């Protein structure tokens, strides 16, 4: 689960990207974060991944209050979180297989275990037959799927995504969002920042709306 308690984030520039933000996402829940450009969506996700730290308040992820977490605890924390970015950040000189295997190799898993998990992940995103391909030979949607396979390969309890469909056409965007919903179905907690309001609404999940760093609305399925 994910919990924000009165979280404020002020960047060194003095700008307050998040202001006294509080919300809780239960284990296995899926939600979207929407809001205007600069509303604080990416900042919120960065605090979960400990890419940034709050100025005030507490963030709890998977039962751990991140406040007291030292630098040496960060790699283990990040292994419990799958992160997907708009620009997928794949290594273009490595195969699809190598890209997805990377988090497991860094974690020191045995080679046969890595092989099993990589193939299971590629199977889930429908790319099992492309494991030897170079990412440049894949379509944008396929590259995004490789990024998702890499994010889920270590079986994280929490999956966060920052504008994962930003570069995709409506059909592919809907497919990628459905893929995230499938991970929720098997128990993963999923939080996605997205500008695409029509698509977000169609998904019928909880929606947190940010406005200048504050929580403007928290819509849940069943609300009018
Ligand atoms: N490293 C930084 N240093 C200073 N200000 C920053 C930094 N990162 C973000 N900001 C500012 O904080 C505010 C929130 O940014 P953030 O990227 O979280 O918004 P966002 O809702 O994700 O926007 P977008 O939809 O455009 O990606 C913006 O005004 C941005 O300029």
UniProtKB/TrEMBL annotation:
GO terms for biological process: cell division. It is a peripheral membrane protein. Pfam families: ABC_tran (PF00005). Residues 2-224 form the ABC transporter domain. SUPFAM superfamilies: P-loop containing nucleoside triphosphate hydrolases. InterPro entries: AAA+_ATPase, ABC_transporter-like_ATP-bd, ABC_transpr_LolD-like, Cell_div_FtsE, P-loop_NTPase. GO terms for molecular function: ATP binding. Keywords: ATP-binding, Cell cycle, Cell division, Cell membrane, Membrane, Nucleotide-binding. It is found in: Cell inner membrane; Cell membrane. Belongs to the ABC transporter superfamily. Part of the ABC transporter FtsEX involved in cellular division. Important for assembly or stability of the septal ring. Homodimer. Forms a membrane-associated complex with FtsX. This is Cell division ATP-binding protein FtsE.
């Amino acid at each position: 689960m994910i919990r924000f308690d009165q979280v404020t984030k002020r960047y060194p520039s003095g700008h307050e990207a998040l202001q006294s933000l509080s919300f809780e996402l239960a284990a296995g829940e899926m939600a979207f974060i929407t809001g205007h450009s600069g509303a604080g969506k990416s900042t919120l996700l960065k605090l979960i991944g400990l890419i940034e730290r709050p100025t005030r308040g507490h963030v709890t992820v998977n039962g751990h209050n991140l406040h007291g977490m030292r630098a040496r605890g960060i790699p283990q924390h990040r292994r419990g979180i799958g992160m997907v970015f708009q620009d997928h950040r794949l290594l273009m000189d490595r195969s699809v297989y190598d890209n997805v295997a990377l988090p497991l190799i860094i974690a020191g898993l045995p080679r046969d275990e890595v092989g099993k998990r990589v193939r299971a992940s590629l199977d889930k995103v429908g790319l099992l037959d492309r494991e030897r391909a170079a990412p440049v030979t894949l379509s944008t949607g396929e590259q995004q799927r490789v990024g998702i396979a890499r994010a889920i390969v270590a079986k994280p309890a929490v999956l966060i995504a920052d504008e994962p469909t930003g570069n995709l056409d409506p059909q592919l965007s809907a497919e990628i969002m459905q893929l995230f919903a499938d991970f929720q179905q098997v128990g993963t907690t999923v939080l996605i920042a997205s500008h695409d309001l029509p698509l977000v609404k169609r998904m019928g999940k909880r929606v947190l709306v940010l406005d200048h760093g504050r929580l403007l609305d928290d819509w849940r399925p069943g609300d009018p």
